Structures are given as structure tokens and as C-alpha cells.
Amino acid sequence: MKKIRFAVAQLDPTVGDYPGNAGKILARIREAEKNGADLVVFPEMALCGYPVWDLANKKIFVREGLKHLDRIRRATAGLKVTAVLGFVGEGPRPGGRSRNSMVWISRGRIVGTYDKRLLPTYDVFLEDIFFEPGRKSPLIAWQGMRVGPTICEDIWDENYAEKPLAGLARKGADWVLNISASPYYRGVAQTREKLVRMQAARYRRAILYVNQVGGQDDLIFDGRSFFCDSRGEVLFRAPAFREGLYYFDWDPEEKSRPQVPGDPDAGTAAEVYQALLLGIRDYCAKNHFKRVVIGLSGGIDSALVAALAADALGPGAVMGIAMPGPYSSKGSWEDARTLARNLGIEFHVHPIRGKYQALLGAYWRQKRKAGKPVPAGRITLAMENLQARVRGLELMFLSNDEGRLVLTTGNKSELAMGYCTLYGDMAGGLAVIGDVYKTEVYRLARYRNSLGAVIPENSLSKPPSAELRPGQKDEDSLPPYEILDRILYLYIEKNYGRDEIVEEMKRSREKIKTSVRGGLARVVARVIRCVDHNEYKRRQTPPILRVSQKAWFGRRMPITNLFDA
Amino acid sequence: MKKIRFAVAQLDPTVGDYPGNAGKILARIREAEKNGADLVVFPEMALCGYPVWDLANKKIFVREGLKHLDRIRRATAGLKVTAVLGFVGEGPRPGGRSRNSMVWISRGRIVGTYDKRLLPTYDVFLEDIFFEPGRKSPLIAWQGMRVGPTICEDIWDENYAEKPLAGLARKGADWVLNISASPYYRGVAQTREKLVRMQAARYRRAILYVNQVGGQDDLIFDGRSFFCDSRGEVLFRAPAFREGLYYFDWDPEEKSRPQVPGDPDAGTAAEVYQALLLGIRDYCAKNHFKRVVIGLSGGIDSALVAALAADALGPGAVMGIAMPGPYSSKGSWEDARTLARNLGIEFHVHPIRGKYQALLGAYWRQKRKAGKPVPAGRITLAMENLQARVRGLELMFLSNDEGRLVLTTGNKSELAMGYCTLYGDMAGGLAVIGDVYKTEVYRLARYRNSLGAVIPENSLSKPPSAELRPGQKDEDSLPPYEILDRILYLYIEKNYGRDEIVEEMKRSREKIKTSVRGGLARVVARVIRCVDHNEYKRRQTPPILRVSQKAWFGRRMPITNLFDA
After folding, report:
1. For the residues B372-383, what does the mean pLDDT come to?
2. Are A406 and A428 spatial neighbours (Cβ–Cβ below 8 Å)?
3. In chain A, which stretches have pLDDT less than 50?
4. Start-to-end Cα distance in chain B
5. Which residues of B touch A370 (CB under 8 A)?
6. C-alpha–C-alpha distance, residues A130 and B126, integer Å
7. Chain B residue numbers touching A13 (CB-CB < 8 A)
8. Number of C-beta neighbours around residue B132 at 10 A
């Protein structure tokens, strides 16, 4: 085999934007040609973006894509470089499901096609609904070589009876190409490389892995394309979270070559931070929001979201609003102001006390008029929620008035426990840290401060509080976050039952503080009941950026559910 | 074959409620025994309810079910009747997917089992995610007969390569049993009977079809179990939307017997009305809400929802609140009051003018203080939404204060067009008519009035208006509903593209009014853009009772989507 110059086009497409995506693809093809590449490779579904869900079954959507594909084909007529890209192919039956397809284009002609065989249908993937699986793995004849084509799941074959790679190896593929749209979660880089390297070594075939980059609603794609040789050694890596065209020269005859170092950020707070930046940036850009607004409570969650937004969009695009209420501490809006000043964002203090009391007074008058008793001297759930909702109302007014996207600031621990108010702090267009546990929020905040201290130390050190009643602390209603997050992780990510969680926590080395009131078994049972019972709130959230392997988006639970886990 | 006395247990289970469901199953088995039944048949997943989604993959959930199954088995030890029921079976691999299973229990012993082979994975069904398919169709030997077991989709085999019925016929099944959890949509009764009768006649086997009844979040199961003989003639029908134990005596040797008449309500407004009643009743009962609250605008949508709620829960459980705003007509709350009086529900008038103006005044003061210009003399989108949200805030306060579920009143046409306000009229726990087009709302309202006039004629006859600015009418912003609903139906239910819709509407006999401004093609394009653009609002709705074949719940569209259909 001769030497190959690969151009890895780690694309950030926009779902449904055929003209835009095709334009980007054409520009990258020309750039690759200019730089002497032999093969320029785009990710799975590069032409239409991923995932397209039900769009895949619209005839007009598929046909429109084919038109743009044809335009790309014609444009390569005078070029030497071969281009490979993913698109939605027409299905075998009219009115039936479509295909998840790959095409090879050279000198104005289609020289190879392939349809994805293994269709992931679990968690955030529902490809069986939209696509008809391919049945064959033809080799692509290219420049005297036989290339084995695969799309994403095709190489993650452990849970499938079919093994596309085995077939390709048997037929004598010289090397394997995989185009993917593989979304990010903390730890995915290690899992992915381990799998691809293992498969390369098992079948003794080099694998070029090309992944999409970018944010699409809840999902964040991290790119991180790479090449590993037939011994499973990584010789090339494209960066994480960055769109671009990256070159790699491969000499198949070369006996040994130094492996390139791994990504030092993989699995760290730095990595999660980068992922969230991309998620915010792409959601805003692709939905044409230039500016955002965030309610700043002085607490750690909203501080982190504001820092992320300022880093993602620039401080000029961010407005922070402190809305102190009747039970807010003075420190709360001072911390918010310090944060805003540190970040250089627009900041206003809009107290809610007057608004809240005007509404509450009217409600109680109405109630008395109806001859119903009004609670005296205590703060009810209705009153707590009203405070949160007066804030939500104000943020939404600002959103409509100034054309700003509201970023919500709830974390995964709160969403799990329902420690949040529908239409109150849950109101907004994008839930930035809804898949980040509270203990991880602290780690991300400290990481951000390590780059330049913007989040006030006070927000990091004071005990978390919703400040909806005098002297309220989160830990009055919730177990300490260190314990809560561990229970939640075992319940949500690991899918453990009550007894398994208790056992696992007792077995593990972490010391369960004696301050868990009522004993661990009781606490675990209560947490699980809270999680289940609050499914109705999570059904009404905006998209939640996904950074864990089991985010809310891929977890399907009934609201009506009497099971006591 | 000898005569059989079937007891068809058309059960309404609650998801996750093993003790409750098992108790009901045991009571029905004993009742069937007492009444001399040979076979008592429960629906698919009767033991755990359907759908259970991710619960199916919790080990503890599966094991808990097996315990209750064992309890049922032991309880049948002294009985003559054989019981058949559906449950979640353990999967073949530890940590892998579960099974959708059926069990035959006789005299304290398990005498037959079967695992569902065809797993529906489209629209509201995602069984491939949760279940491992069965591979075999064993015959069940029972009382000298060979019975062919099937579960729901197994007989809907058109789009599958495998045909379980063909195998059962080949093996010599004497008759076929199908247990289902088949949800309602308008027209399902006809579709279902046609399919089952066609299959019975094709394979010359009688089929007993037993379906679940009841509401589960968005889904409503209509029951309507039936029996058809080997010529496809229907000899028995259980009622729609009613839980119960129904008996049918079958003599396989009997040559002919009169068919029973079809359901006169099938596909009518009466049927949809019944479906919605069950949806409301079960959502409230299963989630322990005894009372509801509804915002009454004087318009047709909220009037219909109030009538449904009063009919479903009793007038004593329903509170209506009229919240006239600065641009509400006087007629609006008078119509609401008349409605409430006709229904006999609790009713209050809580004007929002003062609350709205207090908040708006504060917002504008804040804005001026920040040196930003305040719009003068016009009503902006922010101001319209604020009115709707002040109402939402008040309903949620009442919800929290009195423990009432808020029923939302938006219809499918509005949800499609985004002609609704997040956290305003969209705020609530259950969207009762979110899958009912506006033109159908009128039909349902007229149907309800035909049983006893409760909805004021004025609500039926006045032009629809959101009343958020002076003189506003829906038809200022939207095409006439007759036209809009036709476009939406073709786009959402039929999945047509723009050109196909225009062609279809021109071809069809209905006259396109010349009053469609800007020509049909333009109107269709604008409607489609609105539907696509408002996906973000629909992502934040409460469960929407499903009465159409393509409801929002089974329609998966990206929010970020630049495709121009």
C-alpha cells in the first residue's frame, strides 16, 4: 500500500441546514485538495447534522439532502482528492424507514456507498425508529486498496450478533474507516479509544475514526478524531471540541512510529467545562440568540453558569440579574455583584420583595373573600414557590423584551430531588448544568477560578441555600451533598436498587458521616422516592446539556409510577 | 375441541403498583372461578402496567414482579380456572434487556410461558430499548387444545420479516390468544378489528384479543377486547374505556352464530370525549390528585376542559378561575361564570389588571433606571406574555395552596403554531386537549352540549381571541382554523412536505377560501415554519393526552433545526 495523506474534517454541522453544511463541506474539500490530501473524511450525517430524529422520515428532507449531495459530487469533478461523508439515504421501501449512509466521491463520481448496519437504540439513540439497517459490508476499492467502511455503532459490536468488522477482516480489508456522531460524556474519550484500539488489534487493521463536533440541543459532540494502526497504537489525534480540518500522513509500510500523547484533559473538570462552553455556544449560535440573561442568586450554581456563559459568548453578551427576596441574605446580592464585576457582564439588582408582597396580598385577599382560611405566621410551599416564580416571570419578561435566551442554573442534584420550582428557577431555554451534580459544580467552579478568580470565595464557601424562608439551608431538607450525590449516582447512573445502594455505600471506603439522620437505609429510600416522585418536573425542563453517561434526556421514566424502588 | 368459557379481564393497572395490580388480578381470578370460567385472560404487562420504560431494566423492578407473580401462582392452587397474564420477564443476559412475557397458570403451576417476538419501536413505542425479543413461538397445551400465544405487535406483522402467526398456524394451533396494551387514537377500533379479522381469516384461526384499559400519562388505553372466529367474524366485544371482567362462551364446533354489532361510537366525537374523560380520571387518581383548577377565559377551549373535568371527576372536584385582564371583553368572564354555574363547579373571578400593571410598572421603572428606552403606546410580545404568565402564576399558587392539579387548556392547533405562552397558559400538570385540533374542539363541545347544554352558546359562536391586546382575534395572526387544521393535519399526521400539502389541498374537494391572504403556498410555508420553530415550547409541556395517531409525544423533532420544509 502506498502513503496516504488524510484530511480529517471534524465538522460542526447544523441540523437541517443543508445549504450551510454543504457549503462548509465544499470549502473543506477544496482546502484539502489545495493541501495535497488524498482523502478528506467528514463525520456521520455531516450533510444534515445529527441527530435529525423524525426528519429522517420526511421524504422531502431526504430528497433535499440528495440534491445537495449531487451538488457536492459535481463540484469534485476537477479535483484529485476523494471525499467521504455521511448523509440520510433513501430507504428500500417507499414510505418506510431511511438509511444512515456513507458515500465516497471522486472526480465527480460516486465510487462507493455503505449503509450503517448496527443501529444504536438505547439511551439518547433511537436509530431503529428512523433507519433501516444495512445488510452488507462491501469493501471500497480506492487507489489500489480495499477500505472497510463502518459507521459509528458498527464497531461497537459487543451486544450484537452481527460483527461488521469481522466480515471486513475476512474479506481482506486493508484498513477500516469509521465515521461517527458520538456524543460526549465524561469518560467517553477513554472508553472510545480503548474500544477502537482493541478492535484494531483484534482484527489487525488500522482504523481511522472521524467524529462530529458541536452542540445539538441536549447533546454535545466532542470530535477527538484519531487514527490507530493495526497494533492499536494511536498515531494521530485531532483536538477535542474544536471544528477544523486536520492532516495526517500515513505510511502503511512504515514499521514503527511514536504514539502521540493522550488528551491531558480527558475526564477532568477542564474537559467538562469545555464541553459546556461548546454546548452553550452552539445552542445560541444555531438558534440565533446573540445574548443571554441569568438570574444570579449569589450562590455557586448561578455563578458557574454566568462564568460559563461569559466564557462561551463573551461578557458583553451576558446580563446577570440579582433578584433578592424577603428572605435573601445581604451577602447574596453582594456576591452576585462581585461576580458580575469580575466577569465584566451587565448587572442589575431587581428586588422582588414588593412584587411578591403585592401578589401575595392580592391572593390572600381573594382567599379571604371566598371565605377560606389564610395561613398565618408561616411560610407555605405555595409562598416559597411564588418567590421563585416571580423571579422566573421577571427573567422571561427580560427575555422577551430584550431578545435574550434565559439560561437556567439548576444542577443535577436539585433536578433529581425536585428541589427546584417549575416556572420559577426552572424557567428558561437551556439548562446549562442540569446534568452536573452539586459536588461537581464545586469542582468546575474551582477549576474556572484556577484560570483567573472570578467566582467569589464566599459563593464557594457558604452553605447552599434557596433563601425562600428565614435561615433555610439545603441540608435542612436534603442529605449532605457528598452523600446525596453518591446515592443519586448509584441510582441514576448505575440503575441500582435501594438495597444495592446501601450495600455499595457501606462497602466503599468513603466514610458515611454519622450526621445522616435516620440511618442510611432510610435516607436512601427517601432519596429514591424523591427522584421518582419528581419526574413530572423533569418532563417540563428545557434541553439539559448532557455531560454524563446517563443524563435525563436518555432516561425514560413514567410520571405515573407507584413502584417503590 | 370442547366449549370454553372465557373471562376477559380488561384491567386498568397502575404502572409500578405491584401490590395493587396483583390484588386486582387475584380478585378477578377468584371472580372468574366463581362464575365458572375456564380461562381468565389479563392484558400485556397487566402485573406492572404499561409502558414502564426504563423501569424494565431495573433488576429490582423485575424481581419484585416475579415475587408477586409467584404469589398469584400459589393462590391458584385450589382453583379450576386457568389464568393468563403479562409481566416483565428476566432477560437472557445479566445486565441485559428484559423480556415482554406471558405466563399461563393453572392449579398453582406454571403451565406455559411465551416471550413477545415483535417489539414495536416507533412513535410512542420504544420496546427495542427495554426488551429482548423472544425467538420462538411454542404452542401452549391446554385442556386438550393447542393454543397459539401472541403479545400485541406479534400479530401486526406487516413490516416485519418474521410472522409469528404463520408459524403458529403451521404448527397446528387450534386458536390464537393475543394479549395487548394497545393505546387509543381516533380510528384505532376500526384499524385494530380489521387487522385481527384479516389475520384470523388468513390463517383460519379464531383469535381472542384482550386489551388493557386506562390512562397512563399521555397514553389512554381503550380496552375493547374482542373475539373473532376463524372466518374473521366478531362474536364478542367488551366495552370501550371500561375496566371489568367480561364473559364469553365459545363453542368451537358451533357452525354459525350471529356477529355482534360494532361500537356505534367508534371514531366519533363521543368516543374522543370518553377517551379524554378516562385520561383525566386516571391521571388524577393514579397520582393522588382529588381536585383540579382551570383558568376559564370564556372561550371554547377552557370551557371544554372544564366540562370534561366536571364529567370526569364530579363538579365538586373542579374549580374555575376567571382572570380578566386589561384587554378582556366583559363577555369573557360572564361566559365563564355561566359555564361554571351550568356545570355546578366552584368559581371565582380574580382580575389580573392590578397585578399585571404593578409588575409591568416595576419592570419599566427598572428599565428606565438602567437608561434603556421603554416602548410607549404599544403592546409588545413581552407584555402579552406577561399577562398570560400572571395568570399561570396565579393558577400555580392555587395549585400549591389547595393541592389542586392545574389542567391546561391549549389545543393542538395552538401548540403547533406556538400560539401559547410558556409558563403562562401552558403552565400545569396535564394538557387535556393538546392533541385536539381547534375544529375538533368545537365538535367535542357541541357533542357535550347535546347531552345537556353546559357550554354557553356565546363561547361557541364568538370568534376566538387571546384578548392580550385590544380587538385581537386569532385570525389576525393565524389562517382560518378550517384551513390551518387541514394544513397541520397533513404536515403532522401525514408527514407531507410543503408542495405535497399545497397539491393535496388544491386537489381535495374542500374549497380553499379566497380569504387566505398571500396565497395558499405562502400560508402553508408560514405554517410549517411556525410548527418547526416552536418545538422548544412543546419540549416543556406537561403530558398531553393522546387521541390522534401522531400526537406530540410520539413525534421526535430537534429544537435546533434549520430545515425549511
Report:
1. 93
2. yes
3. 514
4. 58
5. 348
6. 12
7. none
8. 20
Question: CB distance from A400 to chain B under 8 Å?
Answer: yes
Please tell me the predicted confidence (pLDDT) of residue B128.
94
**CA-based end-to-end distance of chain A:** 58
Which residues does A40 contact at the CB level (< 8 Å), separation at least 6? A6, A7, A9, A28, A29, A32, A33, A81, A82, A83, A84, A245
Cβ within 8 Å of A, B 129-158: 129
C-alpha cell at A13: 454541522
Could B540 and A540 be called an inter-chain contact, meaning their C-beta atoms sit closer than 8 Å? yes
Put simply, the chain B residues between 300 and 339 with a CB less than 8 A from any chain A CB are none
**SS3 state of residue A261:** coil
- Residue B208 CA to residue B7 CA, distance in Å, equals 11
CB A144 within 8 A of CB A109: no
Q: Closest to B122 (Cβ–Cβ): which among A129, A386, A561? A: A129
Residue B115's beta-bridge partner residues? B101
* B396 contacts chain A (CB < 8 A): yes
Q: Which residues of B touch A498 (CB under 8 A)?
A: 60
Q: How close is the nearest chain A Cα to the Cα of B142, in Å?
A: 34
CA angle A258, A260, A262 (to 5 degrees): 145
SS3 B93: coil
Predicted confidence (pLDDT) per residue in A493-540, tens digit: 999 999 999 999 988 755 555 456 668 999 999 999 999 999 999 999
Residue B52, chain A, CB below 8 Å: the answer is yes
Query: pLDDT by residue (tens digit) across B422-473?
Result: 999 999 999 999 999 999 999 999 999 999 999 999 999 999 999 999 988 8
Active site residue B346: no
A46, A212 in Cβ contact below 8 A? yes
Minimum CA–CA partner of A284 in chain B: B560
Residues 6 or more apart whose CB falls under 8 angstroms from that of A240 comprise A189, A222, A223, A224, A263, A265, A266, A271, A274
Amino acid residing at B355: K
**Which residues, in sequence order, are bridge partners of residue A210?**
A179
* Contact state of B396 with A390 under an 8 Å Cβ cutoff: no
Amino acid A258: pLDDT: 86
The mean pLDDT value for B204-213 works out to: 98
The pLDDT value recorded for residue B511 is 57
| Contact assessment for residue B551 and residue B219, using Cβ atoms and an 8 Å cutoff | no
**Active centre residues of A (catalytic):** 44, 116, 152
Distance from CA of A247 to the nearest CA of B (A): 30
Question: For residues B289 and B8, what is the distance between their CA atoms, to the nearest angstrom?
Answer: 30
Using DSSP's 3-state secondary structure scheme, residue B94 falls into coil
A537 Cβ under 8 Å from any chain B Cβ: no
Of A52, A367, A536, nearest to B429 by CB-CB distance is A536
Scan for cell 456524543, then name that residue.
A183
Instruction: Name every residue whose Cβ is closer than 8 Å to that of residue A344 and which is 6 or more positions away in sequence.
Output: A310, A315
Give the Cβ contact number of residue A502 at 10 Å: 21
Encode B213-259 in three state secondary structure: EEEECCEEEEECCEEECCCCCEEEECCECCCEEEEEEECCCCCCCCC
- Put simply, whether A380 touches B (Cβ < 8 Å) is yes
pTM, to two decimals: 0.96
Which of B54, B363, B389 is closest, CB to CB, to A555?
B54
- B180 touches B214 (CB < 8 A): no
Partners of A565 on chain B (C-beta within 8 Å) are 58, 60-61
What domains lie within chain B, and their CATH numbers? 4-253 (3.60.110.10), 271-468+542-554 (3.40.50.620)
- Please report the residues numbered 284 through 303 in chain A whose beta carbons come closer than 8 angstroms to any beta carbon of chain B: 286-287
Give the H/E segment covering residue B100.
Answer: strand B99-106
Q: What is the mean pLDDT of residues B29-46?
A: 98
